[in-house]
Amino acid sequence: MEQNNYKGWLYLLPAIAFLGVFMVYPLVDVFVYSFEEGYNSASQTFFGTGLYNYAYVLHDPYFLQAVKNTLILVAITVPVSTGLALLISVGLSSIQKLKDLFQTVYFLPYVTNTLAVGLVFMILFKKTPYTDGLVNLIIGLFGGNSIDFIDGPYWAKMFVLCFYTVWVVMPFKILILTSALASVNQDYYNAARVDGTSKLRIFGRITLPMISPMIFYLVITGFIGAFKAYSDAVAIFGTNLNAAEMNTIVGYVYDMLYGDSGGYPSYASAAAIILFAIVLTITCINLMISKRSVHY
Amino acid sequence: MKVVLQNVTKKFPSRSKKAPEDVIAVNDFTFEIPDGKLIGLLGPSGCGKSTTLNLISGLQKPTGGRIFFGEDDVTDLPPENRGVGLVFQNYALYPHLTVRKNIMFPLQNFKGEAKLTREVMEEKVLEAARLVQIDGLLERKPSELSGGQQQRVAIARALVKMPSVLLLDEPLSNLDARLRLQTREELRRIQQETKITTIFVTHDQEEAMSISDMIIVMSAGVVQQIGPPQQVYDDPVNLFVAKFLGTPPINVFEGEVREGILYIGQEAVLQVTGAADQPVTVGVRPEGFVLQEDGPLSCNLSRVEVMGRDISVVSTHPLCQNTAIRSIISAENQHSVGGQTVRFALKPAKVFLFRKDTGERIRFEVD
Lengths: 296, 367
Description:
The structure holds two protein chains of two kinds. Chain A is an all-alpha fold. Chain A has twelve helices and two strands; from the N terminus they run αββααααααααααα. Chain A has a single domain (60-293), classed as Orthogonal Bundle (MetI-like fold). Chain A starts with a helix and ends with a helix. Helix content of chain B is 22%, strand content 34%. In chain B, the strands form four sheets. In chain B, strands 6-7-8-3-9-10 form a six-stranded mixed beta sheet, sandwiched between helices. In chain B, strands 13-12-11-14-20-21 form a six-stranded antiparallel beta sheet. In chain B, a hairpin with an 8-residue loop joins β17 and β18. In chain B, α3 (118-131) packs across α4. The chains are: A mainly alpha, B alpha+beta. The A-B interface holds A 185, 187-188, 190-198, 201, 205-206, 209-210, 212, 295 and B 57-59, 78-82, 84-86, 88, 90, 92, 94-97, 105-106, 108-110, 157, 161.
């Protein structure tokens, strides 16, 4: 066993080499850049080392705006999308008729092209010279004033972004949760029914603990996914996110690298490391909570 | 509490388009289970045993007939209002709860006036755990228990709310042979201590015979025979019951009755006064053979198996449906076995005649 160890490493070599070159090395590089002031990727030069990049990024109002946006997005979309997905999955598993139809409908956003989705959201929310958008028409029916969701007040734009994100991430969660629900042995429910357990108690004491590993998986990946949000904001508000006050941390990193005001890999690296630190912290907290409430 | 089934029928709609007729899992069941008895519901797999149990528990609704607990018609009651305890084949213990919480689970469902205080619940849990001798394992999770211990927890959970009827679905099938023997004794003891009417489903006839007050033999959705185990064994109503009960199984021959004499081939083996002349199927219990040098039934001797107290003579006969005839003879007679053929006389009480077409029993006078 012991002398054959090198064989195991040999089998792992392709994956290790690949990951090392394309994942580990860039990660280390980013970490190094984040401490090098004014790094220039073309000339490979920099002025000095220190925490200046972090100081700059943490004082940049655009970055603070991006952090605020991202945190709001995460705080709203992760619980809402997971909760809604759970409700819909439970509903789906308890109906007989039209189950397949509804399952298909709920899964459609997952396979729909982002541009097509963007178009749908334009029709729903965008104000043009010809129409105020479908949502404003409905608001008008109830006597409300029309709101500009794309170029209007901050909360309206944030609402659209959250709505969009929830809508996009939900199909996958529903898919995972319906299969998790289906895999719970029917005997547990029968046992509980014979003992006269109420529906609510069955859900809370049996169903939820049984599917808790899957819920936990969705929460963790949901947090990470939401922290990395960028393309959703671009799909709705266009590429000039700073002007729209809708930038996210990943958007900020992108802007610092390639945007109109870009060309600052040091600042981008510092921002990326800060994002990494935030995600790491949140994931660790999640893991600690899961030890108490997730039953494998 | 006594349990009465009246003409209970359960049909499942067919899912296949090729065979559109309904599947009849339980066909016109009528029987009464007396209060406080242990009943074995016995039959081969797919005969509707578990469906019958589910009908009694209320998890499934019968398509016809009525079910009574005592004098109350419970046919339309949902399971939670029937007060039954159910032990599942795979135990269905909640894996995320400790043994204590598993057993307590049914008690926490009581509502309104029936609601119990924490102390009473703890006490009842401890009582149930002591009854099945797992009071030392209360803080463990089901995954940390052996199969036998899980089984006990499942029984404790079913018993803790003092059900009017206790139902067990193949309770011993997941245990190894040794544990199965031990647990079935345990089951018997628990039932006798609690005096709860208990119905358990099994395909193992030995299990059912050994601990039941009464057995119900089922086949293809139809009750074949109901009675105390020994009576059903000694006096089967048809070929199915005779074949299903007993280890080693009954030996089945082709035979014919002519003028009150039973012939197997050309050999007149037994006087069967009262049976009409006809070709018959003959069943002979393994203990129904007597070694006799001039016995009327001659078989080709294959081998002799010594089992200590008894010996088992294995032989063949051209008209026997079993691949080998097994006869159990007390060990003192061993010396007389040898050579190519072995000759037997038959004990009349251990010989059953059945009609060739329906398998129904043909009775004859035994003196």
